[in-house]
Write a structure and sequence with these properties.
The protein is an alpha+beta fold. The protein has 13 helices and eleven strands. Helix 5 runs parallel beside helix 10.
């Protein structure tokens, strides 16, 4: 039986179910069973990509944790502001204020999550699974009253041949019932995946071989240290000492060099003795190189410069400042732009006012302040050269025109 014949048999029942589904969200194992029938026809909706094992890299790999934590700290610093487009004035916007319902739900997403917390969770989910979902709860008037972050490895997307996405099914786990969502009640953020249009591409996917190699090197190093029986220093002598001479030598050696306050004291060897330092073995050097290689790969994939991951081998204050600015300009600002575009498309229509739009406030970001100064100088030059008018500059800054008498 072909896909078309299968659809003709399933369509009446599924369309009736879809009608009820769009009227309200419900908790039901029956809806999950219906979504399984769609999965047989249209695939698993990207559910095979967000493997639970990807999430295990966060608590196990210091490099992955550090990179995602650095991105978390940056993303959560920029407050998300709600603006309203003023009528009759091109490109003019004004903030709605802290007491506006839309700004309140953005600042206080739900009773258990803070604004910073929900952004940290979102950035972590994207950093591990390449996708993030917000579940929207509504009040009696249909407006969004709460926002909840949802684990992407527990979310199932139900494709639709006409509307692209028919719905979402969330599996909370621990024997709790399935939670079904209509598309309007989910904010879906993801990285582009050329192999599956319904799945985000996890940064761990291209990175895990390198990270696994670093973790294997650490495990091997720990095993080697716990079982190490190779001395760090050889003492060569022309004569074979007796047991009593060897014992006396070790007693004198330890009495002079043992302890942190006696490190690097000069040694005096007897005639015919020579000290030989073994240094690092080739295998130990391979372990060190594996850690260095993994650090560079994590830095590239997550867009976090190495100085911000604690690699200060060639670090200076100037290099660190440049790294911070590069991190914000090349990594965080594009990431915030992606969030901003998604929220304006998926969240704003549920806020009850089509004139609203969301925008991150970057004015308080120290790493970008110099950039703002450059922008101010450019505007000043353009006005003096007659390239822009004062009102055009004010419009670019989201301000209204000057009032002229």
């Amino acid at each position: 039986m072909g896909v078309r014949e299968s659809l003709s048999k399933l369509a009446p029942a599924l369309l009736r179910e879809a009608s009820a589904f769009r009227r309200r969200r419900r908790e039901s194992a029956a809806w999950a069973a219906a979504s399984d029938r769609w999965e047989q026809l249209f695939g698993d909706g990207g559910r095979s990509w967000p493997l639970m094992s990807f999430g295990e890299y966060y608590p196990k790999s210091a490099l992955v944790y550090s990179a995602i934590k650095t991105r978390q700290d940056a993303v959560s610093r920029a407050p998300l502001k709600v603006y309203r487009r003023a009528r009759g004035v091109r490109a003019r916007t004004e903030p709605v204020g802290e007491d506006h319902p839309a700004q309140r739900v953005v600042d206080f997403p739900n009773p258990f999550w803070t604004r910073s917390g929900i952004w940290r969770a979102t950035e972590t989910y994207l950093g591990l699974w390449g996708a993030a979902f917000w579940g929207l709860e509504r009040d009696g008037g249909g407006r969004v009253s709460e926002i909840w972050p949802l684990r992407p490895d527990r979310m199932k997307i139900v494709p639709d041949p006409r509307d692209y996405v028919r719905g979402f099914v969330y599996y909370p786990g621990q024997g709790r019932p399935f939670v079904s969502y209509v598309p309007e009640d989910i904010v879906w953020m993801r990285y582009f995946n050329p192999l599956d249009e319904y799945a985000g591409l996890s940064p761990i996917a291209p990175l895990r071989l390198s990270v696994d190699m670093a973790m294997d090197a650490l495990k091997a190093g720990r095993t080697s240290l716990s079982n190490d029986s190779v001395p760090g220093l050889f003492i060569e002598t022309s004569d074979t000492p007796t047991d009593e001479e060897a014992r006396e030598f070790y007693e004198r050696w330890e009495s002079r060099f043992r302890g942190p306050d006696r490190v690097n004291r000069p040694a005096l060897l007897s005639s015919g003795m020579k000290a030989v330092n073994l240094g690092f073995s080739p295998r130990e050097m391979e372990h060190v190189q594996s850690l260095r290689w993994s650090l560079e790969d994590v830095s590239r994939v997550y867009g976090v410069p190495k100085p911000l991951l604690g690699d200060l081998e060639h670090g200076t204050f100037a290099n660190f400042a440049t790294a911070r600015r590069t991190f914000w300009e090349d990594t965080i600002v594009p990431q915030l732009t992606m969030y901003q575009d998604t929220l304006n498309q998926r969240l704003v229509p549920s806020l009850g006012d089509p004139s609203l739009h969301l925008e991150f406030d970057l004015a308080a970001v120290e790493a970008l302040r110099e950039n703002e100064n450059d922008k101010a100088q450019r505007r000043q030059i353009y006005v003096k050269a007659g390239i822009m008018t004062v009102d055009e500059v004010r419009a670019e800054m989201g301000m209204g025109p000057l009032r002229r008498e």
